[in-house]
Fold:
Amino acid sequence: MTERLQKLLSRRGVASRRQAEKLISSGRVSVNGKVAEIGQQADAKVDCICVDGVEIGEPPRCAYYLLHKPKGVVSTCRDDRGRRTVLDLLETSLQKGSGIHPVGRLDAASTGALLLTNDGDLTYQLTHPRHGMPKVYRVWVEGSPTKSALRQWREGVLLDGRRTQPADVSVIKALPTGKTLLQVTLREGRNRQIRRVAENLGCPVTALHRIQIGSLPLGSLPRGRYRLLTDEEVARLKHAAAPSR
Structure:
C-alpha cells in the first residue's frame, strides 16, 4: 500500500513526521535510487527506501518514555553545535536506530517533563495544534506580576501578530527578594512562549520547569533520568490525542 513518504518514515521509527519532512527536503532520502521529494508516495513492501544511503528496516516496536530533562540539554536528536541532546541521556541501544525522538521541545535553559517515543503517529497527534494537549509549568519570574498582567496572560497576549490562546496562570508564592513563583498551564506550544509572554508583561523568567504533560505528571523522577510509560499511561495519551469524530 502506498502512503506519503514522511508518514511511512514515521511509522518505521526513522523520525517524527516533521523531522522526516526535513530529511526529505535536505535530500537525504531516496526511493529506488532517486532522491525523494516532499509529498511523494511509496510502498515499503515494494520500493527500496533509503535514508543517508541505508535502507530502512522493519518498524521497531513502539516505545514510550518520560524523561526529566536537565538544564543545558537540548531537546533534539542531534545538535550541530555539539551540545548534549536528550538522546545522550538514554542507554546506548536507544540512541541510534531505534527512532526514539522527543515529542515537542523544552528549550535548553528549561527543565522537566519531556516525552520520548518512536511512535511517529502519536507524536504527530500530540503536537498538532488542534488537540491542545495541556502542559503544566512552574515558573519563577522577576518581580511581582500585577493583576492586570496576569489577566492579560490568561486572556492572551500578542506574539508575532497573533494572540496566544487563553492560559491558566496562578501565583504560588512571592518571595521578599522580589521573585514570584507561578503555575502556568498552556494548551499550545509556540516557540519560547512562556518566556516571551512574561518578558512582554514586564516579569522575565528566571527558571522554567514542566511538571506535567496531559495526564502524565513528572512526579519524583530524578533529573536526567527516564522511565518507561505504563500501558495505562500510553492508553490515556492516545485517547487524549485521538482525532475527534
Q: What stands out?
A: The chain has seven helices and 17 strands. The helical segments are 5-11, 17-25, 92-95, 120-127, 147-155, 193-200, 231-241. The two ends are 25 Å apart (CA to CA). The first helix runs from residue 5 to 11.
